[in-house]
Amino acid sequence: MAANIKQNHHHIVSKVGIIGAGISGIAAAKQLSSHNPVVFEATDSIGGVWKHCSYNSTKLQTPRCDFEFSDYPWPDRDNSSFPSHLEVLDYLYGYAKHFDVLRHIKFNSKVVEIRYVGHEQTEHENIWEVHDHNNVNDLRQAGEFGSLLKGRPVWEVAVRHTSDQSDVVQWYAFELLVVCIGKYGDIPRTLPTYNDSKGPEVFSGKVLHAMDYSKLDKEAARLLLKGKKVAIVGYKKSAIDLAIECAEANQGPEGQPCTMVIRTLHWTVPSYWIWGLPFFLFYSIRSSQFLHERPNQSLFTALLCLLFSPLRRAISKFIELYLVRKLPLNKYGLKPDHPFEEDYASCQMAILPENFFPEADKGKITFKTTSKWWFWSGGIEFEDHTKLEADVVLLCTGYDGKKKLQSLLPEPFSSLVVDSTGVMPLYRGTIHPLIPNMAFVGYIESVSNLHTAELRCKWLARLAEDKFKLPSVEKMLDQITKELQIMKRTTRFYKRHCISTFSINHSDEICQEMGWTSRRKSNWFLEAFSPYTSQDYREN
């Protein structure tokens, strides 16, 4: 910490601390409100990525009714259009005001250090003293996880408050710390390592990460792109949105084409209708998820799943045929080699803006697929030694969420938080069995991350109140391993920790632990053929 920053070593003690006021943070604050939580938000606004990583054209990828809190419907929830990022922010603010969440939030408050003080307890031995920190086998045998609220501080948190022109570091102490800083934003994924004279320093134009671009206002963004040769590295949602903005800034005869540099192709979908059928029928209802492998299956359901595997592959092929027919994927060399199901199972399916391929047909968006590229003074060079001239290179290369998390946590937890496969081992997507009195929200993905986060916050609030007990550390790790093995068998992109093909089963098990019924619909027909939404998980 800088020497000129004032430190207040008097600790403010509270039961629950929450880091981050994005979707997960405000959901956690609402569900844990009886404990009067303190929420630290590094910026001056709630909303997380919707505030800080959105472009002017960014929209939600789903209709409103698939992205809402269970007890706070959208004002116009039957509107089938996709809301803009500003409408999403308005909705989140409405929720936070309605449930008086804002009173818990300290804005412009960045967490700069976390210390574990749980070893100072005296009531019973602490597993972190008894066992070798680096021996996971010892930790597996550590027994019970214990209560989340111990009646004494377990974590100390140093927070830099930057409002009111002051710059003070204040220490806080908490029994439970909920980490909601998310996988996106803050730390851009770094560029590949280049050989000498092949990095961005040799390029005479501008290089920006999508995170930097999202901070530009509308006019500055337009001026950056207008009349410029732009290369966009990436082919996920942010890259596609950026290509549209680039094409729109370059209309007319003076306009330059924008080139998307694509290392990994992914399936894109024009709308939530496939061959005239609603998309949810294929993956988002209980009967369709019955075809997919899920944890803790009985022998009978596992055999049925094996029997139905050709049907599962046929459904993926059925969707692929539609997409190849509906979109000019072959014309532009954009048909992925892997099945559609692998992108859906890793939450990487992007909804295309209506004007994406029309702009490509006009020559405003062009494509280059390559596994390797590097800079030269005038742009980008590819492994086939062709060169692309560029004035601006925009990197839609994602974020390093794990690095962001590891830089915040102290050892040994920093080393334990991600396992050897690169995945965060989280029980119910929330509790790390080897990190005491800490919870993580927003680190598993599904079709609706808001719904996923809210249900886990409800589960966490009941766990904090000791309304049920966690299994042993070893049993939790075994459950996590089962889920990870399913992801590995379903998609090569398993590190994204996406549960979309068994999301209903995941929610069922959470409901059972909370003592809720897992069958949330009013009759068997709806249970089998109606999609599950957050409205199905309102309080009993």
TrEMBL record:
GO molecular function annotation: flavin adenine dinucleotide binding; N,N-dimethylaniline monooxygenase activity; NADP binding
PANTHER family: DIMETHYLANILINE MONOOXYGENASE
Entry cofactors: FAD
Protein name as it appears in the record: Flavin-containing monooxygenase
Matching SUPFAM superfamilies: FAD/NAD(P)-binding domain
Source taxon at top rank: Eukaryota
Family stated for the protein in its record: Belongs to the FMO family.
Flavoprotein found in the keyword field: yes
EC numbers: 1.-.-.-
Keyword Secreted: no
Keywords recorded for this protein, A-Z: FAD, Flavoprotein, Monooxygenase, NADP, Oxidoreductase
Top-level taxonomy: Eukaryota, Viridiplantae, Streptophyta, Embryophyta, Tracheophyta
